[in-house]
């Protein structure tokens, strides 16, 4: 393990990907009570943790340099140089660009763009002219943000099922493997527990992994890794480790994928300490939140809705980063505050048109940050309108809306003229049939009825 640097670590794990691609399996290698996938997960997580712990304990007193002319690719040290222990950093190329830093202190990320600039860009996103911007679909905006961060920071890598030359299940990683190589864009075996643990271990050694779940529902197979390791390791290690991991992927209702592939995991993950959660809803904030999540020192889960990937918008040519903890004012109003996120933002805006025709003036806020809530923006709106409607696609029982309702009642109860109302998905498994599928989620007509009820 004394030579298990981040480079060697990823190179070793590349073997597991090759095995998967050539239909090898580990069914013949098992222990009583353990499935082969669980065994892989334990093994990969163990390697990642051992690498970080031994480096911090001083087992590896030095690391060998890298002889590479491409600073965008992760290349393992030459075998002949493994015995060289005179340096503490792995360096890519002769230009002095550090590819990895494995010192005792956690590497600090670059500060985000000034909050005022991000806020100004947020407000101007919908009115950006074609002269100063370019049109992108939402999945293309995610890809552009990811590519820019991989160009900016050689620590950033991507791992998941089919994220390499196939480009991901929804093409968010398309073209990245050709540009950055198959070590920075790593195809993994079909074992969420294994590659999530691999990403967490890699983050402990200095990388900044972006882990893609082919479908967010599959990440239930990695729940132990996300909960006990990703979320809690910073605390349980006494601050010795930071876990700058981004976990992202598609989810939500609307493609007739059935109960197992239409789950909304926000409610599952919100109770895990140490994890931030954000949900994108436009190409603009998709790119900005992706970049911010990668730069964060905290583990961040980025939720993407399958029905929004082909949404098109003009975004600025200049670099911008969204605030991970800031809500977005979508429509100012006076009569009622409607809080929503992700796909439901568009159901709310459709309902708002009907409400305006009926004489109501709703204020619509896309909360974006699902954990923690932006109580400053929400509170200012509640103090102005005195009525709150929450619209979500999450399940009603134990959902984001329930937590947000509690937060509003605890902090702004004196400003409310009516009880907080929450419209959520039905507490039923999502049907395959399209008509039944739509019946389980909130529709614009229900939003109109709820606003009329609260305002009277």
Automatic annotation (TrEMBL):
<protein>
    <recommendedName>
        <fullName>pyruvate dehydrogenase (acetyl-transferring)</fullName>
        <ecNumber>1.2.4.1</ecNumber>
    </recommendedName>
</protein>
<keyword id="KW-0560">Oxidoreductase</keyword>
<keyword id="KW-0150">Chloroplast</keyword>
<feature type="domain" description="Transketolase-like pyrimidine-binding">
    <location>
        <begin position="136"/>
        <end position="311"/>
    </location>
</feature>
<dbReference type="InterPro" id="IPR005475">
    <property type="entry name" value="Transketolase-like_Pyr-bd"/>
</dbReference>
<keyword id="KW-0479">Metal-binding</keyword>
<comment type="subunit">
    <text>Tetramer of 2 alpha and 2 beta subunits.</text>
</comment>
<dbReference type="InterPro" id="IPR029061">
    <property type="entry name" value="THDP-binding"/>
</dbReference>
<comment type="function">
    <text>The pyruvate dehydrogenase complex catalyzes the overall conversion of pyruvate to acetyl-CoA and CO(2). It contains multiple copies of three enzymatic components: pyruvate dehydrogenase (E1), dihydrolipoamide acetyltransferase (E2) and lipoamide dehydrogenase (E3).</text>
</comment>
<keyword id="KW-0934">Plastid</keyword>
<dbReference type="InterPro" id="IPR033248">
    <property type="entry name" value="Transketolase_C"/>
</dbReference>
<keyword id="KW-0670">Pyruvate</keyword>
<dbReference type="InterPro" id="IPR009014">
    <property type="entry name" value="Transketo_C/PFOR_II"/>
</dbReference>
<dbReference type="Pfam" id="PF02780">
    <property type="entry name" value="Transketolase_C"/>
</dbReference>
<dbReference type="GO" id="GO:0009507">
    <property type="term" value="C:chloroplast"/>
</dbReference>
<dbReference type="Pfam" id="PF02779">
    <property type="entry name" value="Transket_pyr"/>
</dbReference>
<keyword id="KW-0630">Potassium</keyword>
<keyword id="KW-0809">Transit peptide</keyword>
<keyword id="KW-0786">Thiamine pyrophosphate</keyword>
<dbReference type="GO" id="GO:0046872">
    <property type="term" value="F:metal ion binding"/>
</dbReference>
<dbReference type="GO" id="GO:0004739">
    <property type="term" value="F:pyruvate dehydrogenase (acetyl-transferring) activity"/>
</dbReference>
